[in-house]
Structure formats: structure tokens, C-alpha cells
Amino acid sequence: MMMTRVFSGIQPSGNLTIGNYLGAMKNFVRLQHEADCLFCVVDLHAITVPQEPEALRENSRNLAALYIAAGIDPDKATVFIQSHVTAHAELGWILQCIAYYGELGRMTQFKDKSAQKEVVTAGLFTYPALMAADILLYQTGLVPVGEDQKQHLELTRDIAERFNNRFGQTFVVPEPYIPKFGGRIMSLENPEKKMSKSDESAGAYIAMLDEPDVIRKKISRAVTDSDREVRYDPDAKPAVSNLMTIYGMFTDMTMEQVEKHFAGQGYGPFKKELAEVVVDGLSPIQQRYRELIGSSEVDEVLRKGAQKAREMCAGTLADVKSKLGFVLA
Ligand code: ATP
Ligand code: LTN
């Protein structure tokens, strides 16, 4: 039986948060054992907003190191940088000509990211067509992402179906893989807002590479709800429920188990223990990351990964070009 193909990407746009880890990366690590996985550093997506060239270069390599440090085994999964495989930009353009202006305008991520901005690039608007290209190039069956990417996945499915209907069976129509728990980790300062690495307040997120004392401080300052009970109730107690989700995901405990564990103890002891659980959970990743970043191992993984990815997607791109009526080169 053919193994399911899995594809996902993360933008090299700065400090990854535990939201990225729990919502996406942790599932990447799990899925590599049962599926044929590609994990991509999506630098073409990152430039939809301004990036400092040197920072982008560093962030891209660092993100690849973090993938590996978090447990992705380059012998099992293909890890590569999007711009190293030119087929992404090529199919990205083609799918911009399949996607409709109206449907791109309905994307909530575009609306959020363009709101109150003086300058909005055309690339930020067409971003989901490039994401669809990333996924469809590899005949992907499953896409592990956080909750916020659900709408982009639906658009990807629509684009795939539209193309297949018009030109004949070409793309697998992919399914999203969104965790029930941890698909949307919220800000520590405002539980109505998603935890985001681009939040202007660093207290809103815990970065995967934050020092232990920084993590302790951020958790001790995290907002809580009225009363003192450690109880899971996302509607009535969004802040504490978010902290409990983080605790549960780092310890593999259910919300009932977490409630029981802290029964009658109040927020103080809960936050103290949560901080240690997060520090302990991230510390092996941080240690491995520091080893990797100084070695040439990452560059070698990326070179081989790009080579493999190019081979894997060449057939689909050629098929698309032929079906569209391009003269074969
Ligand atoms: P930004 O927050 O800077 O807008 P981002 O973190 O949403 O960016 P990516 O870095 O590309 O964007 O996200 C990588 C993956 O992490 C995606 O699958 C996304 O759904 C997931 N993710 C991001 N934030 C969270 C969160 N708060 N909770 C769960 N998953 C998240
Ligand atoms: N749009 C995603 C990042 C991304 C992605 C992808 C995720 C780009 N290409 C392909 C899954 C599959 C984001 O903003 N988080």
C-alpha cells in the first residue's frame, strides 16, 4: 500500500512559539513515522511582508535546525527550503490564474494581516495560491496545520477540484489535519487572540527558544480569569483553559486529569508547575538546536532535501504544463 503523502510549511519570520510547536510541529514529528512527509521552510511566503535580507537568511536556516531539533528525522522526512525548488513559484503563478479574486479576498488571514497597514503587497493577497501550489505539487493527502489555516486548506481543495474538473484528474484533493487540542493556542496576555510570533508584545507568547527564566516570568504574568479554580471551561474561563491546554499537551494529560491534579490549589501552584513543565519540555529541543546551529549538518540536510523534493514534484509540474497547453521545452 502507498504511504499517505504529508506536506506542511512554516514561515521563517522569527521566533517560533509554543503555538507553532503544539499546533503544528508536534504533529509533524508524530506523522513522520506513519506517512511520507515533506516539511518546508516557506521563505517565498515570508516575503509577502517586508523582511531584512540577513535576518531572513538566518531565520530560514534556524527554522530548518529547529525542525530537526524538535524531532524531525531527515532520514525519514524531507526537509527543505521552498525557494530551492523553483516548481513552487511556477505552480504558484499558475494557480493564481485558477484562483478567483473574490475567493482570495474572503480569506480572513489576508483581512487580518492587511488591516491598518499602509502598504499591502499583491503577494500577501495571492499568498493562498502559493500555499495551494506547495501542497498540490506533491499529491499531498494530509496537511497538518493549526486551526488558523483551515480556510486556506478549503481554498486549496477548491482550486484542486476546479483544476481537475477543467483539465482532467491532476491533483489529489488534500485533507487538513488539525489537532483537537492545541490547534489554537491563545495569547498569554489576551485569551481572545491567537498566540502569534509577530505579536508586538513578547509577553503574549512563549518562544520555543526562550530561556527558562523568561518562560517562568511570562507564565507568572499570564492573565487568568476570575475565581481561583483550575477548571477547563473555554467559554467562561478562556485564559485558564488555554494554560491548561498547554499543560495537558506537554504532559499528555487530559483536561480532567489536569483538573484533578490541581484541585483546590488555585492559580499560583498551577502556574509554577506549568512553567517547569514547559521549561522541561523545551529544554532537550533547545539543547539539540544549539548543537545543530553551529554544525554543517543542517546545510547538508537542506541540500539533499531540495534535491529529493525537486524529483518528487517534477512529474506533477510537467503534467500541469502539458494540460494547460504550454509548448513543452
Ligand atoms: P504569525 O503568527 O507570525 O502570523 P504564524 O505563526 O501564524 O505566523 P506560521 O509560522 O507559518 O504562521 O505557522 C506555522 C504553523 O503553526 C501553521 O500550521 C499554523 O497554523 C500554526 N500555528 C500558528 N500559530 C498557532 C497557534 N497559536 N496555535 C496553534 N497553531 C498555530
Ligand atoms: N500559510 C501557512 C504556511 C504555509 C503552509 C504551506 C502550511 C505555507 N505553505 C503549505 C501548510 C502547507 C501559515 O501561514 N501558517
Key features of this structure:
329 residues, mainly alpha, Rossmann fold, Tyrosyl-Transfer RNA Synthetase, three-stranded parallel beta sheet, two-stranded parallel sheet, 53% helix, binds adenosine-5'-triphosphate, binds L-tryptophanamide
Q: Return the CATH architecture of the largest domain.
A: 3-Layer(aba) Sandwich
Unreliable stretches (pLDDT < 50, length at least 5) are none
Mean pLDDT: 96
Q: How many structurally independent domains?
A: 2
Largest sheet: 3 strands, parallel
Sequence of strands across the biggest β-sheet: 1-2-3
Shape: globular
> How many strands?
5
Kindly report the CATH topology of the largest domain.
Answer: Rossmann fold
| Percent of sequence in beta strands | 5-15%
CATH class of the largest domain: Alpha Beta
